[in-house]
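Components:
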Amino acid sequence: MSATESAPLNAVVEEPIEPAKPVTHAEAEAKRPSDNAPESPRKARSPRISWLPKKRTVDQSRVDELTHGRKALLCVDSVSVSFDGFKALDNLTLVLDEGELRCIIGPNGAGKTTLQDVITGKTKPDTGSVFLIGDDQDLTQLREDEIAQRGVCRKFQRPTVFQGHSVFENLELTLPGKKRVFSSLFARLTRTEREKIERVLEIIGLKDEAQKRAGLLSHGQKQWLEIGMLLSQEPRVLLVDEPVAGMTHKETEKTAELLNGLAGEHTVVVVEHDMEFVRSIAKTVTVLHEGRVLAEGSMDAVQADPKVIEVYLGGADA
Amino acid sequence: MSDEKPAAKAPAAQPKSPAPAAVRLESVLSKRGYLSFAVLLALSVAIVPILNGLPPDSALHLPDYLVTLFGKFFCFATVAVAMDLLWGYAGILSLGHGVFFALGGYAMGMYLMLAIGDAGVYRSKLPDFMVFLDWKELPWFWKPFDNFLVACLAAMLVPGLLAYCFGFFAFRSRIRGVYFSIITQALTFALMLLFFRNETALGGNNGLTNFKEIYGYSLHEQGTKLMLYMLSAAGLFVAFLIARFVTTSKAGRVLRAIRDEESRTMFAGYNPTNYKLFVYTLSAVICGFAGALYVPQVGIINPSELQPSNSIEMAIWVAVGGRGSLIGAPIGAFVVNGAKSWFTVAMPEFWLYVLGALFIAVTLFLPQGLVGALERVRVKK
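Structure:
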């Protein structure tokens, strides 16, 4: 990781996008022969905005530099964010592999939430870029809904479901495709979509509650519903913020099971405080501190790291 | 129309549980809904002309002035449906819908002015107020309005276009909640000041009036008045059906999602700006339509229609009737306007107090409006 941190900042270039540049993708595609290539509709650029100034793209050599030898999916490249002089993220670089389950931990104010905000487009970083491998579009240039359509999905800390809608409708709304006004005005559920919703209902264990108003669910059920909503969104990257906060022991166990089941097919990023929970699910852990990556590795390695101990136990290091 | 297809589809898409809500919502109205819709439509359109046609000494005879009054009420009820679509379903409280109503009215008024021809006071081809202001020529934007169809289209397109432009900037800047309500108030106030000016060429503070005929039919004939009444009644039902089609579609569910959890909707891949813009524009078009039917019945359109208080009153109709049902809103419009007609005759000085008290009472005791209260009583039984 330390090698990438000292990489030059000018890796992101401002140049107009050619209509389609499969050539630049070629290497990246070659590394991953069979994966997401057929999912082209997600990558298709909205035609309505084609007259707007071209959006910043990502330089391929920088991509190779960050991801060589790994099956990477999402790169956060040298991102800095400051609020009124306070550096929430400080030149942070993070590479997520395909299908991995990554836990991000860190003390309060380490930048965990800001990191998610940057990836999902809620916060625009001062410098740096975020991109998906195989798509040269810099995500920091896009709106929230455009990023979501590219398969980067987010679960909020507070369970955020559509309270007035039924469980079934909640899942229907997050299905991919048909997001434009006029297509949704005349949209009708297809058989495959219906089956998909049924499948998700089964995974999250809310089959019997399908017609219940989501507002009437218990706290834990809402959390699962939200995870289900993300699932029906067919995400490539799933950002999950404190999924077990306020859950009972049993619910926590079930959530761990759910998240473990998701990894592999999707890249899952879990931000969590509960160390016990992190230990039960994590393979790789990233520790953030003051907007930077402090340590990265297996849970045991990270816990043995003196820097991490210092931050967590030593408290104020000044 | 599109309302037929979902009904046909519903049984096919029912593989499992007996009454899945998602399927029921797929259809615009249930079978019983369509039936009651048709019955109500026939009743509303037919009963007033029939009662009006009875001999004057009959106990059930409806005097002529009430025909026009009911026609007006139906126009207001149409506006209420448009308001409810926007406020009840998308959570956008516009306090400037009088603008769109008035613009539709002005478009129709311009046609009616030109239809007077040289039968006006000054025996000139120009509308009277222009002769009075010593203008020699018709302003350019008046010229297309001597065509009835152009005027009808403009009555809907001009409000729609204004709503689209205004909404585009407002929603793109993520202005919402009370801030949006306040700038819509400012919009209607600004337009009122603009329309008061003689230079705007829309009749200044007198507005447009003294209409004689519409599409060749004299406006003083009872037959024309009945026809306008029936159109207004049918218009309400058309507006209701359009609104209902939107709210029962997936777009309607997205709108409710935006109302409840805007950022979640955004992270689900929807662009709230476009949805809000769509429903705001549609709502404005419906208001323009209602305004165009309103003006030939009342015989005048002037800038007082643009008073901020008029737009607020529209919101009160919806609040009284109950929002988010599309049925409550027109009921609220009938109740409030009926009360207004009675009070302004019986004790005119008290009407504003009554209106204020009504609004407070509804907010405190009937947060779901009249329809919500009825629903609650029915559930209790």
